[in-house]
Amino acid sequence: MEKTDVYKPLGPQRKPFLKWQMRTILITMIGYAIFYFVRKNFSLAMPGLTAEYGITNKSFGWIIFIGSLVYGFSRFINGYLVDKIKGRIVMALGLFLCAVANFAFGFGVNLSAMITGADHGADFTSTFIFIMGIIIILNQYFQGMGYPPCARILPHWIHPSELATKMSIWNTSHSVGATLAVLICGYIMGTMGVNLSSNPAWVAQLTTHLTDNGVTDAANQALAYASHTGAWRWCFWIPACIALVGSLFILIGLRDEPKDVGLPDLPDTSLGHYTDAKDKKARKKFEMIMVWKNRWVWTFCIANLFVYIVRMGILDWGPKFLTESRGMKIAEAGWTVAAFEIAGIVGTLFAGWATDHLFKGKAHRMCVFSMVGATLFMTIFRFLPQNSSFLLTTIILIGAGFCIYGPQALIGIALGNQATKEASARANGLAGILGYIGAGLSGLLVGYVADLYGWTHVFETIIVVAVICIFILVSMWQAPRDGYEKSQSINYDE
């Protein structure tokens, strides 16, 4: 059966519309991928910071927790901001400010030394942790200016019947950005910095820091980090330069809506009487019904919390648990996490295709199967012997990455459909709060469980969380594909 051309009603403007659609998808993909360059670099820098300054998993956990909450609320706040200010301006400004924050992070130790008058010791380290926390929190707020513009812009350019497929392609920007970030930063950590491996006092200090933090094979790991002392700084400075160029690219190349370039709105996305009664009262009622009182929006948002605990537990802490629990070198850990991200790209594309072609656009059903797969692979990983080969460990994490990135992408896509193009950014902002509460809890859970009980119990915790998520998603099995029919039934005269 031949597929209906949903853009045919545009007539002679169909071709320019589709060109602008492609341009919008590509620019937002590249721009959002660059946000990850100045976000996931912290994960690769953490092992080096532990080696050089003895910073504990608990400290990192609190920084990740608070930063994640700030990011979630930032996405919510900016979900409203993009309704008042052009999305491309918000997105470009956010990436520029992330670059500034990353430049500042690289100089955090210098600022700590100026304040304390020392370059080591308890006071120096405590001050550095405080400075690091402030900069990461600011960076996370600026990161929250990346997704809301995309969540609002893309549903104006992509038909609901294609939203899962095309936005799944767009969602690979997460994985592309994170993959390139961990590969570049893994290379930086393994090649740059100053070689102080011939300094016995420095090597001994690093060995003590790593031993105190329960790192496997601390002596050899200390030699590796001593050979590249200070390399972690470049994990922030180099991505910051890339982000500066990216912010200009977004500002010049992006447009928010078809009308901004003289094109008509998408077919089949009428919002009923809302279009005619688009005043403050109508907007408030539309948002109340389509977001705040929408059962399916809330269920997706709660599921998002649990998805993020699982995903961020692996992504944020991957380099650390692979080096400390599995004895990998930092470069190997970087490649393993990169493979996890690459698998996420393939998994995201498959999940989007399957949603539209197997589940008729009902993303929640595909999410159930994806979470079941993620749970199975993490269970296998839990029971892998510690001396398992690098290849086997990587293959299992690839399977987990393939499965977990489907729900991560599809929840945002499904919210764009359930809340409609008009309230997509606000619904995704709400999901962002819940998701990054989950990411924050992931930071605390992993940090404390790893320090108190070991990495094995971390994996068990992630498995339990994944099972809870499966039951939440199953509860909405009968939900509709989108909320456009619901939006057309709203009576604005009541």
From TrEMBL:
Question: Which Pfam families does the UniProt record give?
Answer: MFS_1
Give Gene Ontology CC terms: endomembrane system; plasma membrane
Q: Which InterPro entries match?
A: MFS, MFS_dom, MFS_trans_sf, OPA_Antiporter, Sugar_P_transporter
The alphabetized UniProt keywords are:
Membrane, Transmembrane, Transmembrane helix
- Signal peptide residues are none
Broad class of where this protein is predominantly found: membrane
**Domain Major facilitator superfamily (MFS) profile residues, every copy:** 24-481
GO MF assignments: glucose 6-phosphate:phosphate antiporter activity
Which GO biological process annotations does it have? phosphate ion transmembrane transport
**What membrane topology does this protein have?**
Multi-pass membrane protein
Q: Where, subcellularly, is it found?
A: Endomembrane system
Q: Which residues cross the membrane?
A: 20-39, 59-77, 89-112, 124-142, 176-196, 231-254, 296-314, 334-354, 366-384, 390-415, 427-449, 455-477
* Name of the protein in its database record: Major facilitator superfamily (MFS) profile domain-containing protein
Give the organism, scientific name.
Answer: Segatella maculosa OT 289
From the broadest rank down, the organism's phylogenetic lineage runs:
Bacteria, Pseudomonadati, Bacteroidota, Bacteroidia, Bacteroidales
